Amino acid sequence: MRRRVNKKNKPLVLATGYHVRARPLWDGRVDTGDVKLKVIPFESDGERHRRFLAGDFDASELSLALYLALKSNGAPLVAIPVFPNRRFRYSFIYVREDSPIREAAELRGKAVGVPSYLNTCGLWARGLLGDEFGLKTQDMAWKVMRREAIEFTPPAGAVIETFSGKGDLRARLLNGEVDALITPDVIASRGIRRLFSHTKELEEDYFRRTGIFPINHAIVIREQVARSHPPLPRRLYKIWDEAKRLALADDEDPTFSNFVWIRDLWEEERELFGGDPWHYGMAANQKVIKTLIRYGIEQGIARSNITAEKLFLRID
Questions:
Q1: pLDDT in the model for residue 186
Q2: Class assignment of domain 90-210?
Q3: Which tens digit of pLDDT belongs to each residue from 21-43?
Q4: Domain segments of the chain: what residues?
Q5: 79 — phi, psi (to 5°)?
Q6: Can 12-86+215-311 and 90-210 be said to share one CATH topology?
Q7: Whole-angstrom distance, CA of residue 214 vs CA of residue 112
Q8: What is the mean predicted confidence (pLDDT) over 82-98?
Q9: Which string of b and e fits 85-114 if b means at least 16 CB within 10 Å?
Q10: At residue 228, does pLDDT exceed 80?
Q11: For the whole model, what pTM was predicted?
Q12: Tag placement on the chain: N or C end, fewer CB within 10 Å?
């Protein structure tokens, strides 16, 4: 049975990732006003996604590739334009240390392992390989750890197969089942290297050229919950925005972090992004949202009628 919002007694139950942009929500520093909020942080994105879709929470930080597929299938969900998880994706493509593959073009005709096809890291990496290197989704075979129960239609000619037997993605790369991996997990294993060296420079250049800092998660609310309390989406947006403001203020204090050179990195990022890299709202994210949707449609994750207005409530 799904939860219903009871404004007098029951709190709104919100599941988040375990990261600093959400921390002020669960450590009690954000004044949530008339929204009684219970925040549950998860280290495991997969567990959080499964439990939200099972009806355990009223709202959740959710994978955008998964959300694209859900909305394409008419799921009763709405999202606010809050994007607490963003990553560039040059850094997340891996090959074996002894692999002859040295350039992206050499992935053509190869088998690539991913956690699932509806993985946002995979969506952005496939889009990157297409826009920057001319590789289509159909140019590689995709080996997945699991098939999603959600319906989607891959592009014609795309090969998606599920791994057989046991073993994690690292083991399957090392034993030669696949030629490369695209995974949101940072791999630091002997025998594995990133396809691209100097990824920080590549990603900085990509941002300077495109203005895109890829969005991976958004805050998604059950439609029934949002309808029962119309002010809620705007209030929740402001709550997340205040949490981010506090997290960025923490970053300004070099004693807050365990990283020795954190101030140098902070100054570099301010120069590159002009201040806040984590902008929320539709106005500040028009291009990245448009690109996300284009990739979703090209890769068969989203239907062609999906628009930004269908995905996100315009609050800003």
A1: 78
A2: alpha beta
A3: 999 999 999 999 999 999 999 99
A4: 12-86+215-311, 90-210
A5: -120, 150
A6: yes
A7: 21
A8: 97
A9: bbbbbbbbbbbbeebeeeebebbeeebbbb
A10: yes
A11: 0.94
A12: N
What is the CATH T-level fold of the domain 12-86+215-311, as seen in this structure? D-Maltodextrin-Binding Protein; domain 2 (3.40.190)
Q: What is the pLDDT of residues 157-214, one digit of tens each?
A: 999 999 998 889 999 999 999 999 999 987 878 899 999 999 999 999 999 999 999 9
